User: Fold Tripartite motif containing 44 from Sphaeramia orbicularis.
Amino acid sequence: SDCCFLLTLLPQMDGSCDACEPDEAQPATQVCRTCSFAFCPLHADKHASSTHHLLMPYNQEKQGTRPWLPQSPGKRDTVTVERLRCKEHGQEGSLYCKPDEKIICVVCAVQGEHREHEIITLHEAYVWQKVNLMHRMSTEELEAYVNTQFDETLHLVDLKEAFLTASAAEKIAEITLETERLQEEMDNITHQLCLLEKGEDQAIGPAVAMEALKAARESAQRNLMLSYWGCHISGIDVHFSQ
Assistant:
């Protein structure tokens, strides 16, 4: 049944209480059908009151066995999900602490921090949580909530796209303006060179003046390229940083 587990990792019964301290273990009188743990009268009462599990008398003639566990022919052993394995005891997470809403192992339920809590099976926990969810939110409400979240996320994507588009347009405008300014500077220098070529009387030698203007023209060309690539790279950085 759903309430039974193949707890092959548990120690064999030796007639003593599994909940007592090992060096002070009392004789077992009851056995939990769900947890497959043996208890002395004191711990049996505590376990029954906290978990509401069915206890049965301990049979001294069958020590070392757990006869109530199902042994269906061909049925494979339970598969332990490593993600749900108890990190403290290394046992399979096969029970559920209802107050803490946490999957726990049988050792946690009997000897660990959850021993005084209400413990239920995983199947009972699934049904309980499912009912709670249905009470809090109907199928239509859940669908509406998902749709709302999707619409809000889509709206954020649209805002992001609009912001990036505006940033790109701003950078393109800056590049265009800088290109036009540098082009004017180059045109002016070219005009000055033409005038010098035609001039005959200057304060300095024509050759020296022409070399100076040519150098200025080359400098303007370099500035044009550096400005263009600087703005271009800046635009790319802004785009990817967003």
